[in-house]
């Protein structure tokens, strides 16, 4: 098949693109090469925009015309199967907004914050080049494949193109990944709310607010989403404002002052109840609030960065690229590429790019804007999160993100340890920051959300000054992340429940009935137990949980991305477009190398789960207790937890290797056949069905 | 100018609704009338409830 001919660019557009390239290169040069003096965040933002624009215009277009060979005259699924509900040809800007809202989550806000321990440069470069050559390629190509296959899901396409067995293997991977995602995200909330009565109160207040909204929408004004969301938002802001009085009150504060373990149990119980309640009562109203709040907060963050133009206080590269960092363990390679998953490349997106979005696109010619462009937007969010973290005082950053086992539990100990690392900070500065945000302590609040919240609060405070406003913005940002994450936990538990019921139905048919209460409660309990186990493990973890669990999440997410890109590679071969096989092939290979190396280092060697388990087991044999364990039973628990993590890592590695073998087999067969063998639906001209 | 403001507003509302899993009601009604005149047209309330249930029926529509 002949590649579509690209239109010749006009001289004016040539000049413009050369200018953008020069500006981008100059800004990137400033970001990458200027040493010794702090640079302004605007350089970084400008460099990112230039790279995104160039990547979109040239590489995105190349993929559209040469690799996917998208055809605007071809009828997409939305037209062919138009049912007015799921399949509807929709305005491209509406689809773009919808797609972006579906892919943007807490992930791109957390990963870059954690990765900032290596300085802002490594994270920036991986986000910029990762998104252009891997992340956006994955989203766009999976969307393109799905468009040509009646908007089928990733699992369905895997079964069709690779065979039934690889499809099942990949789906088990997705279920396990989802459990890890839910646990890690819930842990972010636990970390942010530990001993924070203000935060806990505002998050708890979202439950009655949601009930109120749900009832209002059910009986009083059915379907008025926007109206009820505004009411909800006002109530939310009110709850943030009143949270201060709760925190100051001697009677109320202790009720909302909880340690990590208690919070974990509350979240587990909450997750169970929330996912068996009718959706209109709790899940849906909270979903609406969190969707709007998310978009609003991202816009607010962008505005704050542009208006306050902060200086990056974090060095470009810190000494922690050698793997000795306190926030997460491991060298720059492969752990940077595991830590920043969403934002650079996220396997989860392949599920969305083969879900609702391909059912809405009105034309194949709009797929680049939605698929490739949507992911660039997400990368921009990740860059902003990185800016917010890097514009904090590095001492404050490390105090917030390093585990108590490393920096101690008092501000004096923390300030001494962190100053020894070369980030000079006084106990006073740490106390003052805590006071400003209205919390008792900022120490060891890993998980990204609190750091981002402090960064955002300070940026917003720069443009909207006012007494006590830092504390308000801090709790606003915490509430936003918590609300968003809890909605994901509810919805994820529900999805997990359906998946478990489907699997259980293979063994005992009646369990498959989603309306049956036995099947429903049983599957929900199993699902909650699965993620709840990891959440609880994180809450009692010696290194604070995030340090241990985030790599597991990163490995799993990148594994899914590798699977999606491998599928794209196989399809390119099966379409007999072998000379473009490197487009999805190289990022797939890179992710396979990263996940397998990271997995291997988590299995054997100094930073492995095995080493951690052995350390505690050895201490137990000698009758010692290692912090934070206070009894032999707790020691045993830590050993078991590390063994479980080990098994999970091993499972992910086996999954990746199995998928590599399946894909290689399919690719070789496709290569040897001399005609296209991909399962595309036949061509139908748009002109023949439209109108 | 006024017309473009209105179209931006319409876009925003449609996007906001779709982000919550509720597609355009008018488009659905039009589709029913044109292609399935024999089927009853649901009220907005019924349509909304059906979509709300459908959104959380699995399939997973969000990211981490």
Kindly state the mean pLDDT of chain B as a whole number? 83
Most strands sheet of chain A: none
According to CATH, the fold-level topology of chain A is: Amino acid/polyamine transporter I
Helix content of chain B: 55-70%
* Average predicted confidence as pLDDT of chain A: 91
pLDDT under 50 segments of chain B (min length 5)? none
What overall geometry of chain B do the principal axes of the alpha carbons give? Answer: flat
Oligomeric category: heterodimer
Structural class of chain A: mainly alpha
Total count of strands of chain A: 0
- CATH class bucket of chain A: Mainly Alpha
Gyration radius over CA of chain B: 15 Å
Taken together, the total number of domains of chain B comes to 1
Structural class of chain B: mainly alpha
N→C terminal distance of chain B = 39 Å
- CATH homologous superfamily identity of chain A: Amino acid/polyamine transporter I
Number of helices of chain B: 3
Greatest interface by residues involved: A-B, 56 and 38 residues
Order of helices and strands of chain A: HHHHHHHHHHHHHHHHHHHHHHHHHHHHH
Transmembrane segments (chain A): 15-33, 40-59, 125-147, 168-190, 196-213, 225-243, 263-284, 291-312, 332-351, 372-392, 473-496, 517-536, 548-573, 580-600, 646-668
Membrane topology (chain A): Multi-pass membrane protein
Protein name (chain A): Carbon starvation protein A
Subcellular location (chain A): Cell membrane
Task: Offer a concise description of the structure.
The complex is a heterodimer of chains A (691) and B (64). Helices cover 72% and strands 0% of the residues of chain A.
Written account of the structure:
Chain A: It comes from Rhodanobacter thiooxydans. Chain A: This is Carbon starvation protein A. Chain A: It holds the Pfam family CstA. Chain A: InterPro entries: CstA (IPR051605), CstA_N (IPR003706). The complex is a heterodimer of chains A (691) and B (64). Chain A has helices spanning 11-33, 41-67, 77-80, 92-103, 107-115, 120-147, 154-162, 164-193, 197-220, 225-248, 253-256, 260-276, 283-308, 332-339, 349-353, 357-360, 367-390, 394-401, 404-407, 411-420, 427-436, 449-463, 469-507, 517-539, 546-574, 582-603, 609-621, 632-672, 686-689. With 691 residues, chain A is mainly α. Chain B is mainly α and 64 residues long. Helix content of chain B is 64%, strand content 0%. Chain B starts with a helix and ends in a 9-residue tail after the last helix. Chain B has helices spanning 2-19, 25-35, 44-55. Classes of the chains: A mainly alpha (691), B mainly alpha (64). Chains A and B meet through helix 4, helix 8, helix 13, helix 15 and helix 23 of A and helix 1, helix 2 and helix 3 of B.
